[in-house]
Design goal:
Helices cover 27% and strands 45% of the residues. By secondary structure, it is α+β, with helices and mostly antiparallel strands. It is globular.
């Protein structure tokens, strides 16, 4: 495992305000959308917010398999793993409090108590990293 490449990947992740997130539809097709990561833990874990009544959440209830890609200036980090729907109120409240200005605009019907407020937690098991011409796929 190339420790320097992973460090560079983590730096890229901190620069990206938006990433692509893929779910698997009921028909087995990938569906890609853009989301803003609310919190990261290295290249292993990411938390996102979305509407509980949306397509992504419906997909992840049926199939947790997911992909997430971060891209900046020709460099990229593509991750595969599982997307969990967070039900822990403390985690949801902590993330909401940290991002209340942003999330308050998206969940105006009660803020963190809005029934449509949903947190997704992505846990990567594989990363494909391409940074400055260096390329590696590795298990996390």
């Amino acid at each position: 495992m190339n420790k320097k490449l992973i460090e560079n990947a983590e730096k890229l992740l901190t620069k990206c305000n938006v990433c692509s997130v893929a779910s698997v539809s009921e028909k087995g097709y990938p569906r890609i959308c853009l989301l803003m990561p609310l919190k990261t833990n290295g290249i292993k874990e990411f938390w996102f917010s979305t509407g509980a009544n949306g397509t992504k959440v419906r997909h992840f209830k049926c199939n947790e398999k997911s992909g997430v890609t971060f891209y900046d200036g020709g460099d990229s980090v593509t991750l595969t793993g599982d997307m969990k729907i967070v039900t822990d109120k403390k985690v949801k409240d902590d993330l909401y409090d940290r991002w209340s200005d942003f999330l308050g605009r998206h969940f105006p019907d009660g803020g963190k108590d809005d029934p449509n407020y949903c947190i997704l937690h992505f846990i990567a098991d594989e990363a494909t990293i391409y940074i400055d011409g260096a390329f590696e796929t590795l298990e996390i």
